[in-house]
Amino acid sequence: MTQKRFENFINGNFISFRGKRFFSKNPADRRKVLGSFPQSDRKTVNAACEAARTAYPLWSRTPWPVRADYLKKFGQEVERNEKGLARIVAQESGKALAEARADVVEARHMLEYAASFGRNAIGNIIPSEVPKKFAFTLRVPIGPTASISPWNFPIAIPTWTWAIALVAGNTVVFKPSEDTPLCGQKLAEIASRVKFPKGVFNLVHGNAQTGKALVRHRAIKNIVFTGSFGAATWIQTESIRLGKLCATEAGGKAGIVITKSANMDIAVDAALKGAYKTTGQRCVSASRFIVDEEIADEFTARFVAETKRTIRVGNPLSPETTMGPMINENGLKKVERFNAMVRRAAKIERSGITILLDGARARKGMLRHGNFLTPFIYRVDKYNSRFLPTQEEVFGPHIAIIPYRSGQWRQAFKIHNDTPYGLAGAIVSNDFEEVFDFITLTSEIGVRYANLSSVGAEVQLPFGGLKRSGNNKPSGAGILPHVTHTIAATINFGKEVVLPQSLGKK
Asked: Is pTM, for the whole model, over 0.85?
C-alpha cells in the first residue's frame, strides 16, 4: 500500500494538520508504511471537543428514530465495504483475514443493533400510589462523549462504545489506537458519507497524550474506554477529580476449566480458539487451561498436537495463515519476558513446571520483517498463586496447562478465580452441577461460557468485567445505562396536589 497522509475529522471536515505526525506500519512487515497520521495536540483536541459541544444541543433534541437512521446508514456502508475493510484490518492489526472479516461483521451487527434502539421503548411506566398521577422514566443523553478504543478490534470495538451513545443523543470525539489509525480513519470516512450533522461525530488521532487531553477537556462529560489496566485506572481517577462519568474495560486473564466429564473434542477446540485467535491478543484470550488430573495427560497431548498441526504463523492476508503477528515490538517483548520467567522456573526441579512447546520469534524468510512469535505452552503440576505468568495478562500465545486434583472441581474454580482480573472464562463439562455452579455462583468474571471457548461475544449481550478488568460498566448491549441518565418523571392530572406516603393533601 502506498504511503498516504490522513487527517483528523472535525466538525464534518477532514482538517489539514501541520504538526508532528506518526506512521502506521504493517506488523507482518514493518518495512511497509500504511500511512501518516496527525499527532494531535491540545489545540486540535480542543477544536474537536468544541465541535461536539456545539452540536450537542440540536443532536440531543433530534428524535430517536431520526438519529437511528444515521446508524442504519452507517451499518449499510460498512456492509458495502466489508471486503476492503477486512483487508485493512488484516494489514494494520495483523489479524488473519477471516478474523479481520469477523471484526467488520461484528461492527455491522453493532450498528444494526444500535439503530434498533431508535424504535424501541426507552423507559418504563411505573404505577403511582396517588390517583391521577402518571409516573414514568426516560433516558436522556449525558453529553459530549470521548471514545478511546484499542487496536485489537479496530472496527468492532469503536462501534461498541459510540454507536448506542450516538443513537441516545450524545455527540462523540473518537480516538482510535495509534497502532491502528487507518482503521479508525475508515470509520471517519464512512461517517463523512453518512453525513452526520457537523460536530456530531469527530475523530482525532494521536498517542496517550492526545487521549489525556481529550479526557481532561471541559466539554467532555463522559469517557468510554477499552485498553490497559493502567490507563483505565488513570481515567477513573481523573474522571472522579473532574466530575465526569466513565465506563472502562481493562483486560483479563481468561481461563477454561475442563472437568473429567468434558467432551474432549469440545475441550480441545475451545482451547485452540481461546488461545490463538488474534495471536492471543484479546482481552478474553484463554491463557490458562485448568484440567482435571484424570484427563490432563490426554488433553495436554491433544492440545499440543493440534497446536502443531493447525497453527500456521504467517502473512495475515494468506488463506493458509491461522495466526498472524504480534501488534508491535513492545507486545512481542512482553511475551518474551514472560516466556523467559517460565524457562527460569522450569529449571528448578521442585517447581513442577514443564515446557511443552518453546515459543520464539519466527525469523525465517519474510517472517523476519514482522512481529511473529510461535506458541509457548507449559504445564504447571504444582500450582503457585504467586507465579506471575499464571496471574498477569500476557497478551500473546503464552499458555499454561494447570491440572487439579481429580473430581475437586471447586478447587478448579478457585484456581480460575485466583487472578486480579475478572473479564471472561469458560467451563467444559457435561455435569449439570459443575456448569450451574460455575455460571451462576462461583465465577468472578463478567462474561461466562459453558461448553464454549472464552472468545465469541455477541453484540446483543453486555460485555464487561469485574475486579481489575473494569469498573463494572459493560459495553455492547450493556452500554445504554452508561451513556444516558435515567430520569424519573411524574405528571399530575388532578386538580389538587396530593402527596404520597399517606400525606394526602397536607
From this structure: yes
